Amino acid sequence: MPNWILKSTVQRLISWLPRSHRWNALFQKKISRGYFARQATFEGKLILCRQHLEHYRKFSTQPVENLSAVELGTGSWPIVPIGLYLCGAAEIWTYDLVPLVEPDLLQHTLTQFADAIRQGSLKKYLPGARVDRMAKIQEMADLPANENPVKSLERLHIHVRVGDARHTTLPSHSVHFVFSTVVFEHIPAAIITGLLDEFRRILVPAGVMSHYIGLADQYANVDRTITPFNFLRYTSRQWRWLNNPIIFQTRLRIEDHRHLVRQAGFVLVHEENVLGQPDELRSVPLAPEFSHHPFEDLLVLFSWLIARPANPVEFSPSTEPTGQPG
Ligand SMILES: C[S@@+](CC[C@H](N)C(=O)[O-])C[C@H]1O[C@@H](n2cnc3c(N)ncnc32)[C@H](O)[C@@H]1O
């Protein structure tokens, strides 16, 4: 059995257990060794954090110092929100359906930050990191890892919320920045629409959204025999059996994401894509579901979509805004 089908099958079995995220964490800890963020992953997330901040600086009129932000999809390692805190953000709310940040995970993440600060490499990734806030992180990294991580993160103005970000309960027009890092690719279109409606509600009129979306077949990370385009060969019906609830991949393509963002009343102000190898895409017989997408769109493996709320002239609920990617 190919590696990726084996992984998908194990995760499908895990998803049937009660409190499946706990069992999956145990599986990662004991077998796949993916529980703690590896150093390369940590550094990769710092680069993504810097890029989120660059987008905010470029497209917002507010300074980062007064920034109040919302993150969709905390995950297990709150590296990007801690990076925002270091660079001066005032308040950060981070939402996840499941409580994934465990005390040992937060301790490990804080130690990674403290090491990077001590070695001088943090400033390379986050040039805007503040001295007083770096000192605070170093102080926290030295504490024993027995405190509730939600309480620890509160000290960094990071408010962890376990729940659906379609219902943040934050006041309307109270947030300057909404961001996500490798999250949209796991969420079905109808739910993305609900999330974008909520983000439109909570963002100030001059607010900014920055979403980093992965569009590659994530099983290609565990199986070198398949390409990042492999999942495009399966019909929706076949994919229902191969997909699994733990790493659920929607296979929405870049044009679908652009459409959802515009349809929710945003103007796309910037788009930046990482493309795969044309030969690898040509080697995959496409399922009919994907044959209408332009070849260049199907080549997209990762995408930054940056958007701002459309003003009333650009958008009314019955018409789509006309903004084009920059
Ligand atoms: C792949 S993880 C991303 C983790 C993190 N952003 C990172 O970079 O490591 C995606 C997360 O999004 C969360 N998620 C999916 N739908 C959500 C929703 N409607 N509201 C809040 N979180 C959601 C999932 O539970 C999952 O933990």
Structure description:
With 326 residues, the protein is an alpha/beta fold. The protein is built from 13 helices and seven strands. β1 (68-72), α4 and β2 (91-96) form a beta-alpha-beta unit. The chain has helices at residues 3-15, 20-32, 39-59, 79-86, 103-119, 122-125, 131-141, 149-154, 189-202, 236-242, 254-263, 278-282, 295-298, and strands at residues 68-72, 91-96, 158-162, 175-181, 203-214, 266-275, 300-309. The protein is 41% helix and 17% strand. It is globular and about 55 Å long. The protein has a single domain (3-14, 35-309), classed as 3-Layer(aba) Sandwich (Rossmann fold), CATH 3.40.50.150. The structure holds S-adenosylmethionine. Residues 72-73, 75, 77, 95-98, 100, 164-166, 181-183, 186-187, 191, 195 line the site of S-adenosylmethionine. S-adenosylmethionine binds next to β2 and α9.
Silhouette: globular
Enter the CATH topology name.
Answer: Rossmann fold
* Average predicted confidence as pLDDT: 92
CATH homologous superfamily name? Vaccinia Virus protein VP39
Assembly of the depicted chains: single chain
Tally of domains: 1
End-to-end Cα distance, whole Å, is: 44 Å
Poorly predicted regions: 318-326
- The CATH architecture term is 3-Layer(aba) Sandwich
- Strand residues, percent: 15-25%
- Helical coverage, percent range: 40-55%
Lateral strand order in the biggest sheet: 3-2-1-4-5-7-6
**Largest beta-sheet characterization:** 7 strands, mixed
